[in-house]
Every structure is written in C-alpha cells, then in structure tokens.
Amino acid sequence: MKKYKFFAVYTVLLSALLINACDGQGGGTQPKSFTNDLRGTWVSNDTNAPYSGSLKIDFDTITIGGYGESQTPPQGDDSKRPFKNFPIGVSLKGYSEEGKIFIEYGGAVKDGIPYIYSETGTSPNKNKILEFNFGGRPERLQLTENS
C-alpha cells in the first residue's frame, strides 16, 4: 500500500510542476517577440533629417544606435529625437504587437511606439520601410540586412 501512496503523491507533485511550468495553458505560452518582417538591421534613410540612427531587431531584443543627445540641433526640440528615453547601444528586451513596438527598460515595458511597415518594389529589389512619428516629426528607416 505504501508503494501506491508514494506513486500517487509523486504523480500529483509532478502534475503540479508541469501545470505550473505551462502557466496552466496545457501547452505553454509563446514568448512575445518581434514579427519576422521587423527583424534585421534598419538605418535612417533621410540624409537631411536632424537625427540619424539605427535599430537592430532580433527575435526578442532591440538595440538602438545613434539618436544620441549630441544630435539635437541648436534651438532644436529634443521631444522629436527618436527613442530619446532609451539607452543607446544596449540590447533591450522587446516585442511587437498590433502595429506597436514595446521595449522593456528599467524593469518595465514602456508604452508602445506606433510604427508603419511598408514594402515597395519587387523581388529581388524590394525596399522595406519602417516609419515612426516622434513629436510630430516623421522618422523613416530602411532595412539593410535581415538577421
């Protein structure tokens, strides 16, 4: 009889661990990530813009390059500087959802940054564009390489 009690307790504990590991969903939850069309290295494509920078987007991380405070033009409006509230050159956790990019910084996920993704041309000369709006100023990035 002791064998059956041990087996029953073992089974219940193992089941509880599995359910907990799967968040009670039966198959686990998918980690949040960036959509495939956003993954890659994006660079500013407007040479006359007061700001320039890049985004390197992987499965669930984003690295912001450029866009530093030193780019703010004299008498410029720093509220229009892209990604101004995030560190530059640091890989941050993030994901995309419903036309917004979410970035985790300081232990919290910040409000989503709306974007528009578009493609022009035909393969193999397809142009992929990522557009944002920062303080009323448009920011356009072009995909340079897929990750």
CATH topology of the largest domain, anyone? Lipocalin
Q: Residue ranges: pLDDT <50 for 5 or more in a row?
A: 16-26
Instruction: Tally the helices.
Output: 1
Mean pLDDT: 82
Helix and strand sequence: HEEEEEEEEEE
* Total discrete domains: 2
- By DSSP, the count of extended strands is 10
Report the radius of gyration as a whole number of Å.
22 Å
CATH architecture of the largest domain: Beta Barrel
- How large is the share of residues in beta strands? 35-45%
**General shape:** globular
Structural class: mainly beta
Description:
By secondary structure, this protein is mainly beta. The chain has two domains: 1-29; 36-145, Lipocalin (Beta Barrel). It has one helix at 2-21; strands spanning 40-44, 53-57, 61-66, 91-97, 100-105, 108-109, 113-114, 116-120, 127-134, 137-145. Strands 1, 2, 3, 4, 5, 6, 7, 8, 9 and 10 form a ten-stranded antiparallel beta sheet that branches. Strand 1 (40-44) and strand 2 (53-57) form a beta hairpin. The longest helix is centred in the first third of the chain and has 20 residues, at 2-21. Residues 16-26 have low confidence and may be disordered.
What layout of secondary structure does this protein have?
Blueprint: H1 2-21, E1 40-44, E2 53-57, E3 61-66, E4 91-97, E5 100-105, E6 108-109, E7 113-114, E8 116-120, E9 127-134, E10 137-145
Antiparallel strand pairs: 1-2, 1-10, 2-3, 3-4, 4-5, 5-6, 5-7, 8-9, 9-10
